[in-house]
Amino acid sequence: MEEDYVIDVYNYTDNNYTFCWNMTMEECRLGPQRDPLSTVIPMTLVYSLILMTGVTGNICTCIVITRNRYMHTATNYYLFNLAVSDLMLLILGLPAELYQLWYKYPYIFGEPFCILRGLTSEMSTNASILTITMFTIERYVAICHPFRAQTMSPLAKSCQDHLVHMDRGRCLRPAHCPTIWHSI
Fold this sequence. Notes:
The protein is built from six helices and two strands, in the order ββαααααα. The chain is mainly α.
């Protein structure tokens, strides 16, 4: 096997070179399997803290908003959406990222998970950005058209903003939102 041989050569890249003393071909080609412990341990602690507080905080946010009727406002619907988006990113992305801090290669999760991880990251980021955009539009309507904003229910307001975005994107209206299109 090629990986079993210890080599004693130079590894040239972009006029810089590193020595590959006492390394396998794979280590010389791909680099060290893990960064130094002085980097990995603090990053692991920070990632673990972010994971625990993020999951706990976002789950608590979702529970509080769903259980309390008085919290069913347009603003809290947006916060709920942001919490779900963050949960998706935290649960599906951060554990794999944490694993890769310790073991850069070989990638054990397989190609489907790699694709799902990238897709989830992009979806979560886009959902967060679009939610903040829709929240901004809702605030615009509340400030610039206060009488129209008062006559709409909180769910109708958030659905209207959702429909504004979807109409701009030429998508179909979702079935769970009533048709409440008003020109802004």
